[in-house]
Amino acid sequence: MGVAIAFVAGLATAALFERRNAKSTASEIVEKARLEAEVLKSNEVMKGKEESMTLKSEAEKQANARLAKVQASEAKLKQREMQLNQQQGELQRKRNEVDGMKTNLDNLKVNLENQQTVLDDRRKEVERMEKTVRDTLEHVSGLSAEEAKEKLVESLRDEAKTAAASYINDIMDDAKLTANKEAKRIIVETIQRVATETAIENAVTVFHIENDEIKGRIIGREGRNIRALEAATGVEIIVDDTPEAIVLSGFDPVRREIARLALHQLVADGRIHPARIEEVVTKVRKQVEEEVIETGKRTAIDLGIHGLHPELIRLIGKMKYRSSYGQNLLQHSRETANLCAIMASELGLNPKKARRAGLLHDIGKVPDDEPELPHATLGMKLAEKFKEKPDICNAIGAHHDEEEATSLYAPIVQVCDAISGARPGARREVVEAYIKRLNDLERLAMSYPGVVKTYAIQAGRELRVIVGADKISDAETEKLSGEIAKKIQDELTYPGQVRITVIRETRAVSYAK
After folding, report:
1. pLDDT (tens digit, 9 = 90+) per residue, 433-468?
2. pTM
3. What is the DSSP string of 54-90?
């Protein structure tokens, strides 16, 4: 019994101890939860404050931006209002001026009406006095008014003839003094308005090949292929040690072009033998003839020339493959045609006729046969044969003084032909040397400090030098121009004279948004 009581007492003690422990644990848990809740609460409060501060800042920014826009709008409105007030004041002033002018006009109108009345009265008085004088003169002289008028007209006619002759002599003398200057002006303006291209033809054409093995196939067994090709084209074919190149030599550029195109097709096809060579050359010759006609048509269309005979169009196309003193004949004729049209316009003549004569002036250099005639005379005969107008034919025949000029188009063609042939870079000068001279001019000017850009213009007769406004002053530009001119004289070779223009400018750029 005592044991049971002791056991129960132990259980009660243990339970009491566990209850105390549980209460302590619960208190700790509650305290911990309370602390965590306070931390979470503090964090949420801080987060809320930060969000409210952010929202407040954004709201203030938006409010400031709107306020700035409103203020800007108010400023614009005020400015616009001031402008409107100024315009209104100006309109009112102008209205007052108009009213004053109307009043003045009304007064002038009244004065004019009064003066017109006075003039009418005086006119009647003059007519009455004139009638009285006429009657008196007729009575005194014994002549009627018509007879006196005839004698007076005859006397005035003689005086007018004398005055006119004197006036014509004065005009002729003045024209002789100014004709040379006026002619130079027209020629210079004509040259400046035409852009030119330089093309140089040679007596040989180089045909490039991929490798030297093809040379043997072109020569053929015992040279039969190359002989067949030379016989078919009329061009000498030179196969030497030049790597990857074959030279086609001949005085006729059309034949050289046919040989080049035929070689190109034969090499691309791979079948090279005499029969195939004759077939390809025949086909290429037909293609070149078609190209000649197409070139003539395109040239006539480009220049606005219509109604040419088909044979003349073919002769124009042949000019593409001919050259004169190193100048491509078709380019020369096109250039001469444009120059003639401009010069005829300056002189008040028909530019279409002048352009037509300029284009046809050298057709005597590309005839199908070769008669013993100067090319100008032959060209005139061809133009006559194909029904060109007499003034066009005469301009063609007289452009080298073989024929007597009977129209104003003849000297125009003669002058423009000389301009096209005599300009720098047109004849007797290799294009590489011409371009090199221009590059040397620009490079020499660029060697000076402060120079930004250089341009060689007018076929190398003027050099324009652009300098930086922040690097060179106005006084130094004159010194620089003289130094460049002296250096060009000392170091370069050039025809005529070279004008050096130094340009200095200051630019201020702003953008309105």
Report:
1. 667 778 888 888 899 988 988 988 776 778 889 998
2. 0.45
3. HHHHHHHHHHHHHHHHHHHHHHHHHHHHHHHHHHHHH
